[in-house]
Write a structure and sequence with these properties.
Layout: E1 5-8, E2 12-17, H1 28-33, E3 38-43, H2 60-75, E4 80-85, H3 87-98, E5 103-109, H4 119-135, H5 137-144, H6 155-168, H7 171-183, E6 197-202, H8 209-219, E7 224-228, H9 235-238, H10 240-260, H11 267-271, H12 292-298, E8 326-331, E9 352-358, E10 363-367, E11 374-380, E12 383-389, E13 392-398, E14 403-406, E15 412-415, E16 422-428
Parallel strand pairs: 2-3, 2-4, 4-5, 5-6, 6-7
Antiparallel strand pairs: 1-3, 8-9, 9-16, 10-15, 11-14, 11-16, 12-13, 12-15
Helix pairs in contact: 2-3, 4-5, 4-7, 5-6
Length: 450
């Protein structure tokens, strides 16, 4: 197999892995701006752009082998600063988890855990290869390219992203990459990563977004998380000055730490501080033999340790800004999103408990939980709850300390008609609720996270 790549710069060895619809051209803003400090190689993935076609599809570890071979060929035994965007971020995460001596630092941008944990997302990913064959490169890129950038992106940059995709993808290479993404689920891998890790996401990313970035950062001990304002999925192209500043500072810091810290410590001790706000899951402490004070503290979830998560449900704003609202988790992960590794919460053993912040004028779309009842208990403001059946809806307004319990299988909706934010408890009677469904009458019907 012949792997094509672009090279630039002198200094610390750095390997750049592009996304599923791109090529080494994606890193031109980095190759030109960081050449004074980093010795960079940006590949064309196997079956992409100037690289040779695949003789047979590769699995995830097959791509990792190609990454390792290129690093060895270009940098010898030196560990590399590994940078991956989107699909390239998935490859980079797996490389760092399985080949720790290869990676001196890890930066991923617009990455995810893979689509394998969600059957619907996996099916959508597998459909893309057939779509490429059916539409051809130009039309495929014209349809998919614009969404990779922020909604208000410069038209010239949009045209450049479309042209790069059209020139880069070929059916065999793209199909192999799409299958890897569809099958990948890195949830159980990331705790093995010991390299200093920076997780970046465009604040306006409509493909993976800040929520997926947080899922990754939460699973890697000591990982740093940062959002790039005004950027979509291809933040390194859309806001290169900001991304370059992060890359320059982070790789420099990783090298300084590696040189300064003692060599007699375990890798994780040399690299990571203890993550903030980490707490013991009380189910790992045994009441009979644990220190009683420690056991008691592990059962407590303070308001001060909560944070407003606007990202988990953020994808629903694609149906309208009125669906923007925040989740504040206490027990379990809820139906939407996977937050089992969030150490600020207690793992669910039979129910989930969270607060929801519903801004003035905001709505929760009509939806149905088929596997569990759901209860709402108002703490601040007022919430209008709608119960739906056969095109009819009955609405009731709940105020302070009012509560409604909605049985499984009953469609419901929420709205804040007041002039101030509403805050209420949400309790779902399942350890990990199924994702709710949205009827054709719901604004969320057909809206997906991807």
């Amino acid at each position: 197999m012949v792997l094509a790549f672009r090279r630039a710069g002198t200094g610390a060895p750095t390997l750049l892995l592009h996304g599923i619809g791109s090529s080494s051209l994606a890193f031109v803003p980095q190759l030109s701006a960081l050449a004074d400090e980093l010795r960079m190689v940006a590949w064309d993935a196997p079956g992409y752009a100037a690289s040779s076609d695949l003789a047979a599809p590769l699995d995830l570890d097959g791509y990792v082998e190609q990454v390792a071979a290129l690093a060895q060929d270009q940098f010898g035994d030196e560990p590399v600063h590994l940078v991956g965007v989107s699909w390239g971020g998935v490859l980079a995460l797996r490389t760092a988890a399985t080949r720790p001596t290869l990676v001196r630092s890890l930066t991923v941008l617009g990455a995810s855990l893979g689509s394998g944990a969600d059957p619907a997302r996996a099916a959508q990913m597998r459909e893309r290869a057939g779509e490429l064959v059916r539409l051809g490169n130009d039309e495929f890129a014209r349809r998919r390219g614009p969404r990779l950038l922020a909604p208000d992106a410069d038209p010239g940059l949009v045209a450049q992203a479309v042209a790069t995709m059209a020139a880069a993808v070929r059916p065999a290479g793209y199909a192999s990459a799409a299958e890897v993404m569809a099958a990948a689920d890195l949830s159980a891998d990331l705790h093995r990563i010991t390299a200093p890790t920076l997780v970046l996401a465009g604040a306006a990313d409509r493909v993976t977004g800040p929520e997926r970035a947080r899922e990754i950062a939460d699973r890697i001990p000591g990982a740093a998380l940062a959002l790039i304002p005004g950027a979509g999925h291809l933040a390194n192209q859309e806001r290169p000055a900001l991304v370059n500043a992060w890359l320059r500072g982070f790789t420099r810091a990783a090298d300084l730490l590696a040189a300064a810290l003692p060599g007699d410590l375990e890798p994780t001790a040399r690299i990571h501080a203890v993550p903030i706000q980490e707490r013991e899951d009380p189910m790992t402490l045994h009441y009979d033999d644990a220190d009683l004070a420690e056991f008691t503290d592990s059962l407590i979830l303070t308001q001060a340790s909560r944070h407003e998560d606007w990202d988990t449900l953020g994808f629903q704003a694609k149906a309208g800004d009125q669906f923007r609202r925040a989740q504040i988790r206490y027990v379990g992960s809820g139906a939407t999103g996977n937050h089992e590794t969030d150490r600020r919460t207690i793992a669910s053993r039979g129910f989930t408990f969270s607060n929801m912040l519903l801004p003035s004028g905001a709505e929760g779309p009509e939806h149905t939980h088929h596997d569990a009842e759901e209860a709402f208990f108002v703490l601040e403001g007022e919430v209008e709850v709608g119960i739906h059946r056969d095109g009819q809806v009955v609405k009731r307004t709940l105020g302070y300390r009012d509560m409604i319990v909605v049985p499984a299988g009953v469609p419901r909706s929420l709205k804040n008609n007041g002039d101030k934010d509403a805050l209420f408890c949400v309790i779902i009677g399942a350890q990990k609720p199924q994702v709710p469904t949205y009827p054709e009458t719901s604004a969320m019907h057909g809206v997906t996270r991807d």
